[in-house]
Amino acid sequence: MGEMNPVKGMRDYLGEDMRLLRRIEGTFLGTAALYGYQEIETPILESVDLFRRGAGEGTDIVRKEMYELLDKGGRPLALRPELTAGIMRAIMSEKLHSLPDMPLRLCYFGPAFRYERPQLGRLREFHQFGVEAVGADSPALDAETIALLMTGFRLLGFQDLRLLVNSLGDKESRDRYRAALRDYYRPHLERMCEDCKERFRLNPLRMLDCKVMGDQELAKGAPSLQDYLGEESRKRFEETLRILDSLGIPYEIDQGLVRGLDYYSETVFEVHLLSPSGKDYGALGGGGHYGGLLKELGGPDLPGVGFAIGAERVLALMKELGLGEEEGREVEVAVLPVGEEALPYAQEASYLVRGMGYSAETPLRAGKLSAQFRRAERKGARVALILGEEEMKGRKARLKDMESEEQEDVPLERLQERLDQIFGEEEEEDGHEE
Ligand code: HAM
Description:
The structure is a single chain. By secondary structure, the protein is of the alpha+beta class. 39% of the residues lie in helices and 19% in strands. The chain contains 15 helices and 16 strands. It has helices at residues 15-34, 48-54, 60-63, 84-93, 139-156, 171-185, 194-202, 213-220, 231-247, 293-296, 311-321, 343-355, 369-378, 389-394, 415-433; strands at 38-39, 45-47, 67-70, 76-79, 104-113, 125-134, 162-167, 252-253, 267-272, 285-290, 304-310, 333-337, 360-361, 383-387, 396-401, 407-411. An eight-stranded mixed beta sheet has the order 1-5-6-11-10-9-7-8. Helix 12 links the parallel strand 12 and strand 13 (360-361). Helix 1 (15-34) packs across helix 11. Histidyl-adenosine monophosphate binds next to strand 6, strand 10, strand 11 and helix 11.
């Protein structure tokens, strides 16, 4: 029954994982709102050309990992391997660059697709949350973007993340450095992997994070980008680091950090965290400043800075760290009819309770009350409403607080007030715990 499984490298979300995915989405979108970002959603399919020009012709992502297809009109389309290029396209389509207040601050959450070898932390369909701040060029904005990233992880409950930063410098810095790298690698090129030979031609910076053993050894002796940074770029990087210091955000400078997309310039960064069991899911998120991307795509010459996190990697770590665990009430109010005659009244009461904003469940057939109570307990109900003939006649409910075990009679017209009290106190207690 192979066809009944999801496509290789893709997965279903349900139960606990679905809840955590939504929590990651909600927490990061909420964090972005704290920093003044507006949410945007762009199509999953875009023209192949957008990613060739956006992410870069020479990147693994575009050369090897893109899901490409022709639509029925013969248009070459790709499932987006990342969302930044699409956001830039939307900025042009919607003429957002002519809005008076710069920078634009946009955030997003959605699926992305890469035809990679599936392994720990690596899927072919995964979800990214990300932000893009476009239309201002400032180390303060770079630092603010990193701060947003750290706030999001903090609000999810993460501590001790490793933040890696590096500067790729401006175009001139990188051109000088590329030339130096080619000089360094040229005598060794014959012995290197096929990918590196290609990277030598297209973008020798990518040779630095080749995963092949021998090539890794070589990378250790390669010239350092820091020695080729222009004065302006060096100052800009130092200013970014100074702001991070003043915010109390710890970081490590990683001179080997070059990132996998071509559009970056100046400051780049990634967050990493080993799991408690020592698993490395890869970067939880990464991003940086991009100077010429919008212009490269035919838009105005506006720089930007942004990042994206991989929700699946964050999710896997949250589970290992026990973050985001919930007592999980599947149902808040169990409505229990005593005998078949009370069933219509129980259905009415459930309808009313849901209209009061609480989840309610009532059985389809009135079974034994003891069995109904056991089910209510399994579902974590806080309140049980026991409804018999007497309650039906009096338009009231016998309310049992499942925690204190206390019972009381509550007329239907006072039910909202009473439920608000009980659940309001519960929320307050939970709030104090955190
Ligand atoms: P990226 O580093 O290619 O950057 O991807 C961002 C994050 O997506 C990674 O750190 C990782 O957590 C997750 N990710 C990437 N590939 C996979 C995969 N196959 N399976 C699971 N998770 C994955 C970007 O995509 C840039 N657009 C970020 C950016 C925004 N830069 C500036 N603005």
